[in-house]
Amino acid sequence: MKRWGVVFFVLLLIQNQGILKPVEAEDGFVKTRGLQLVLNGIPYYANGFNAYWLMYVATDPSQRGKISSAFQEATKHGLSIARTWAFSDGGYRPLQSSPGSYNEQTFQGLDFAISEAKKHGIKLILSLVNNYDNFGGRKQYVDWARSQGQSITSEDDFYTNSVVKDFYRNHIKTVLTRTNSLTGVAYKDEPTIMAWELMNEPRCTSDPSGKTIQAWITEMASYLKSIDGNHLLEVGLEGFYGASKQQTNPNYYQVGTDFIANNQIPGIDFATVHSYPDQWLSGSSYEDQVSFLNNWVNDHIQDAQNILKKPILFAEFGRSLKESGYTTNQRDRVFTTVYSAIYSSARGGGAAVGGLFWQLLAEGMDSFQDGYGIVLSESSSTVSLISEESQRLIKIRKMYARLRNIEKWKRAREIRRAQWWSGNKVNDTGN
């Protein structure tokens, strides 16, 4: 009886949200519809992971087995979204060695990562630049501009200097119009790519009002969408609020972003949040960190649902085991807190659509271990939690798929009935 009550509630919810409408073209691109992501007409809830290293490792053909192995393990555990870097600016194994100059071997590494994701049914979120100087990032862009005679005072000029913005726009265009050397499909036409991300964790501390980043997002979102109308776009935000709600931020952080305002910009299709209470509240007790995390996750779900009216993805979360005293049980509680909130929202038709833990590693990648890394082939309680969350979200997707099939069957029956009545009327009149 309880099960049928839930099904009735979901049917009612679907009808109220207009989900049982004419079906979209089944082109394999993830879209948005109200609070939901949608894939081929069916609400899309998915568990996932971060693996920033995919392109970097795949640049060396002898190491590409690590990408294949990671994807194979991911699919075994029900994971179907991966977030990774589509940037490497200057330095070792660069994608962009200098403004507008691209390394074909590195691009082929990204080609391979995309083609392997396609083989394994994994959707990708590709980030286009870093806030930090790892893999170049904002610092490399402003250094390039400075070397060309631009008057640059800080890395925050990344958001305002016209030459730097031209460099970044060119990177957007180059990546989006790239034709994959293995599949022959342009990135902007590739359904395996779920979304683009403007920047990994943008910050502009020189302007805590948020106006600088707001203007930059508005400009770059418009430019990217002018090239690619197929894919979703998100900012890459950690989720920090502006002055109006700064008390929600850890230690009252203000870093020049605003979760509400930034995600209301036209062209931004869904919201993202990162969650690192072990870093943000490093001086607090573990219990205080978990309490903060619980409020942080639920506040953002509610704001996405009630204010933004857009889907929300928890694009990074985890707990390091590198620090002395940190245990697997503590990490599990962090995962459970995030996963429980996502599932609770998803099963009720709310705004949360999934979570991506930081980070997935393949076997033999000890040098990439930052304390957060998880190797799925190594059995652990955390791996079990990941699999359980995947299966719970898959069940929700299957439920919607069944309901959609029922609706399609009803439509077909109504059409046949209408045709039958039409034919009988003709016969009754003798025409």
Automatic annotation (TrEMBL):
<dbReference type="Pfam" id="PF26410">
    <property type="entry name" value="GH5_mannosidase"/>
</dbReference>
<protein>
    <recommendedName>
        <fullName>mannan endo-1,4-beta-mannosidase</fullName>
        <ecNumber>3.2.1.78</ecNumber>
    </recommendedName>
</protein>
<dbReference type="InterPro" id="IPR017853">
    <property type="entry name" value="GH"/>
</dbReference>
<dbReference type="InterPro" id="IPR045053">
    <property type="entry name" value="MAN-like"/>
</dbReference>
<dbReference type="InterPro" id="IPR001547">
    <property type="entry name" value="Glyco_hydro_5"/>
</dbReference>
<keyword id="KW-0326">Glycosidase</keyword>
<keyword id="KW-0732">Signal</keyword>
<keyword id="KW-0964">Secreted</keyword>
<comment type="similarity">
    <text>Belongs to the glycosyl hydrolase 5 (cellulase A) family.</text>
</comment>
<dbReference type="GO" id="GO:0016985">
    <property type="term" value="F:mannan endo-1,4-beta-mannosidase activity"/>
</dbReference>
<dbReference type="GO" id="GO:0005576">
    <property type="term" value="C:extracellular region"/>
</dbReference>
<feature type="domain" description="Glycoside hydrolase family 5">
    <location>
        <begin position="29"/>
        <end position="359"/>
    </location>
</feature>
<dbReference type="GO" id="GO:0000272">
    <property type="term" value="P:polysaccharide catabolic process"/>
</dbReference>
<feature type="signal peptide">
    <location>
        <begin position="1"/>
        <end position="25"/>
    </location>
</feature>
<keyword id="KW-0378">Hydrolase</keyword>
